[in-house]
Amino acid sequence: MITFRDFTYAYPTSEAPVLRDISLDVRPGRFHGLIGASGSGKSTLAMAAAGFIPHAQGGEHTGSVTVGDLVVADTPLPELVTRVGLVQQDPFNQISGARFSVREEIAFGCENLGIERDAMRERVEEVMERLRIGHLADRSPYELSGGQQQVVAVASMLVMRPDVLILDEPTSQLDPGGSRMVVEALAAIRATGMTVLLVEHKLELLAEHADELHVVADGRIVAEGAPADILTDPRMDAWGIGRTRFTVAATEARRDGMWSQERALPVTLDGAADGFRAAIKGEQE
Ligand SMILES: Nc1ncnc2c1ncn2[C@@H]1O[C@H](COP(=O)(O)OP(=O)(O)OP(=O)(O)O)[C@@H](O)[C@H]1O
User: TM spans, by residue (predicted)?
Assistant: First the structure.
């Protein structure tokens, strides 16, 4: 679906490339997570996948990024938005400023695509229902909470029916309540089988939802695989990423002889609960 091949990129003001030899496959129907230390290149990669790089940012690149049969560098942004939707960190900055209600705000992208009125209304209602924001339809986008605004930003992308939805740390500027709203929206999107690429520091969120993780370190993809394998990889600290609370707790328990060497370290609450249950049962026997 999205394919990077030997993609190297430098911003106009960069002294050295910030992405190097990236080869990556975002596959249909899969939920991909992108992790890495701050400044490793995740947002740059997300922008390259959505075409903001090179179209909006300029810079120098070698190698290629393709979305389906389109070569990103050769495809104008207005054509790419129907294939790849990008939701960024700051919900406020994503409001168009051109529309007075949430319903109109969500329709805005479709209007620009010239979609016929009835079809557009249908799409807007459908996406509001799927993300459970129908009750916000007549409110001003500016009156909403950060979490609500971010879900509206997601809806504004989904309404254009892209093949892939990319989200760059969509909860990083939200309070816990706002984050929960966005996470619920993500779960609803995942349930539809949509292809997703999520840039995220919250490892537990990825452990719960992602099919596959890609680790970025110093502009390169240094590891890829299932969340259970990547999030317990001994190199996680060296990559500057850290671990889930569940992995940390089980690692300490293992040091104290309470978590068996044979049992894999957990990355989810269920995995941790199972392991600790087994350990307690073992003690009682
Ligand atoms: N517009 C820009 N011009 C020049 N350099 C940039 C630009 N944006 C980012 N960079 C640099 O590119 C590198 C990668 O940045 P990027 O924002 O992609 O990292 P990141 O992994 O998303 O970080 P974070 O987790 O903090 O968001 C960093 O060294 C950053 O300073």
Answer: none
